[in-house]
Amino acid sequence: MWDYPRPPALEPSAEEVAVTFAGQQIAATERSYRVLETSHPPTYYLPAAAFVPGVLRPVERRTFCEWKGVAAYFDIVVGERIDVAGAWTYPDPVAAYAALAGHVALYPARMDACTVDGEQVQAQDGDFYGGWITSRVVGPFKGAPGTRGW
Fold it and tell me: Which class in CATH covers the domain with range 9-131?
Protein backbone atom coordinates (compact mmCIF):
# COMPACT_ATOMS: atom_id res chain seq x y z
CA MET A 1 0.00 0.00 0.00
CA TRP A 2 3.00 2.29 0.13
CA ASP A 3 3.00 1.85 -3.65
CA TYR A 4 -0.56 3.20 -3.83
CA PRO A 5 -0.75 6.61 -5.51
CA ARG A 6 -1.78 10.07 -4.38
CA PRO A 7 -4.30 11.14 -5.54
CA PRO A 8 -5.88 7.76 -4.87
CA ALA A 9 -6.51 5.20 -7.59
CA LEU A 10 -9.94 3.72 -8.21
CA GLU A 11 -9.95 0.03 -9.10
CA PRO A 12 -12.89 -2.28 -9.88
CA SER A 13 -12.89 -5.49 -7.85
CA ALA A 14 -14.48 -8.88 -8.52
CA GLU A 15 -13.60 -10.10 -5.01
CA GLU A 16 -16.43 -11.51 -2.92
CA VAL A 17 -17.13 -8.85 -0.29
CA ALA A 18 -19.58 -9.45 2.56
CA VAL A 19 -20.62 -7.41 5.61
CA THR A 20 -22.34 -8.62 8.80
CA PHE A 21 -23.93 -6.27 11.33
CA ALA A 22 -26.19 -7.07 14.30
CA GLY A 23 -25.82 -10.76 13.52
CA GLN A 24 -27.16 -10.41 9.96
CA GLN A 25 -25.46 -10.25 6.60
CA ILE A 26 -26.37 -6.77 5.41
CA ALA A 27 -24.41 -6.64 2.15
CA ALA A 28 -22.67 -8.93 -0.33
CA THR A 29 -21.25 -8.36 -3.79
CA GLU A 30 -18.65 -9.42 -6.30
CA ARG A 31 -18.74 -6.01 -7.99
CA SER A 32 -17.18 -3.36 -5.78
CA TYR A 33 -14.57 -0.66 -6.14
CA ARG A 34 -11.40 -0.26 -4.13
CA VAL A 35 -9.92 3.17 -3.45
CA LEU A 36 -6.15 2.83 -3.12
CA GLU A 37 -4.27 5.69 -1.46
CA THR A 38 -0.71 6.00 -0.17
CA SER A 39 -0.37 4.93 3.50
CA HIS A 40 -3.92 3.48 3.62
CA PRO A 41 -5.29 0.00 3.21
CA PRO A 42 -7.98 -0.16 0.49
CA THR A 43 -11.44 1.22 1.18
CA TYR A 44 -14.18 -0.85 -0.47
CA TYR A 45 -17.22 0.78 -2.05
CA LEU A 46 -20.13 -1.61 -2.56
CA PRO A 47 -23.07 -0.99 -4.88
CA ALA A 48 -25.99 0.42 -2.88
CA ALA A 49 -28.09 -2.43 -4.34
CA ALA A 50 -25.79 -4.93 -2.55
CA PHE A 51 -27.24 -3.84 0.80
CA VAL A 52 -30.37 -5.37 2.30
CA PRO A 53 -33.26 -2.94 1.71
CA GLY A 54 -33.85 -0.63 4.67
CA VAL A 55 -30.40 -1.09 6.23
CA LEU A 56 -29.09 2.28 5.00
CA ARG A 57 -30.92 5.28 6.46
CA PRO A 58 -29.81 8.69 5.06
CA VAL A 59 -28.72 11.31 7.59
CA GLU A 60 -27.86 15.01 7.28
CA ARG A 61 -24.09 14.61 7.82
CA ARG A 62 -21.81 15.79 4.98
CA THR A 63 -18.04 15.94 4.67
CA PHE A 64 -15.65 16.98 1.94
CA CYS A 65 -12.84 14.91 0.41
CA GLU A 66 -10.22 16.84 -1.54
CA TRP A 67 -10.17 14.03 -4.14
CA LYS A 68 -13.72 12.71 -4.39
CA GLY A 69 -15.96 15.64 -3.44
CA VAL A 70 -18.87 15.85 -0.99
CA ALA A 71 -19.79 12.70 0.93
CA ALA A 72 -23.27 11.99 2.27
CA TYR A 73 -23.78 9.58 5.19
CA PHE A 74 -26.12 6.81 6.29
CA ASP A 75 -26.94 5.27 9.62
CA ILE A 76 -26.78 1.48 9.41
CA VAL A 77 -29.93 0.05 10.99
CA VAL A 78 -30.76 -3.57 11.82
CA GLY A 79 -33.60 -4.00 14.27
CA GLU A 80 -32.81 -1.99 17.40
CA ARG A 81 -29.10 -1.69 16.59
CA ILE A 82 -27.95 1.50 14.88
CA ASP A 83 -24.48 2.52 13.76
CA VAL A 84 -24.72 6.30 13.52
CA ALA A 85 -23.24 7.68 10.28
CA GLY A 86 -21.48 4.36 9.76
CA ALA A 87 -21.57 4.44 5.96
CA TRP A 88 -21.03 7.06 3.28
CA THR A 89 -21.42 7.68 -0.43
CA TYR A 90 -20.44 10.29 -3.00
CA PRO A 91 -23.76 11.14 -4.72
CA ASP A 92 -22.03 13.42 -7.22
CA PRO A 93 -18.29 12.62 -7.14
CA VAL A 94 -15.74 14.57 -9.14
CA ALA A 95 -15.15 13.25 -12.67
CA ALA A 96 -12.10 11.11 -11.82
CA TYR A 97 -14.22 9.14 -9.31
CA ALA A 98 -17.54 9.15 -11.19
CA ALA A 99 -17.76 5.35 -10.90
CA LEU A 100 -18.31 5.72 -7.12
CA ALA A 101 -21.77 7.22 -7.66
CA GLY A 102 -24.29 4.71 -6.35
CA HIS A 103 -21.69 2.97 -4.17
CA VAL A 104 -21.39 2.92 -0.39
CA ALA A 105 -18.38 2.54 1.93
CA LEU A 106 -18.48 1.76 5.64
CA TYR A 107 -16.27 1.51 8.70
CA PRO A 108 -15.31 -2.15 9.13
CA ALA A 109 -14.42 -1.55 12.82
CA ARG A 110 -18.10 -0.89 13.54
CA MET A 111 -19.37 -4.07 11.87
CA ASP A 112 -19.57 -7.57 13.33
CA ALA A 113 -17.51 -8.80 10.38
CA CYS A 114 -16.33 -7.77 6.93
CA THR A 115 -14.78 -10.34 4.61
CA VAL A 116 -12.96 -10.26 1.29
CA ASP A 117 -12.92 -13.59 -0.55
CA GLY A 118 -13.77 -15.26 2.76
CA GLU A 119 -10.91 -13.62 4.70
CA GLN A 120 -11.93 -11.66 7.80
CA VAL A 121 -10.87 -8.03 7.45
CA GLN A 122 -8.97 -6.14 10.11
CA ALA A 123 -10.14 -2.54 10.38
CA GLN A 124 -7.78 0.36 9.86
CA ASP A 125 -6.99 2.08 13.16
CA GLY A 126 -8.64 5.36 14.03
CA ASP A 127 -12.18 6.66 13.82
CA PHE A 128 -11.66 8.67 10.63
CA TYR A 129 -10.56 6.03 8.13
CA GLY A 130 -12.47 3.15 6.54
CA GLY A 131 -9.63 0.94 5.31
CA TRP A 132 -9.93 -2.84 5.02
CA ILE A 133 -6.75 -4.74 5.96
CA THR A 134 -6.29 -8.22 4.53
CA SER A 135 -3.23 -10.46 4.34
CA ARG A 136 -2.50 -8.97 0.89
CA VAL A 137 -1.64 -5.49 2.17
CA VAL A 138 1.37 -4.59 4.29
CA GLY A 139 1.62 -1.62 6.68
CA PRO A 140 2.35 0.41 8.61
CA PHE A 141 -0.97 2.14 8.01
CA LYS A 142 -2.09 5.64 8.74
CA GLY A 143 -4.70 5.85 11.50
CA ALA A 144 -2.95 4.75 14.68
CA PRO A 145 -2.08 7.45 17.26
CA GLY A 146 0.67 9.69 15.95
CA THR A 147 0.14 8.87 12.25
CA ARG A 148 -2.44 11.45 11.22
CA GLY A 149 0.24 13.85 9.94
CA TRP A 150 2.02 11.33 7.69
Answer: mainly beta
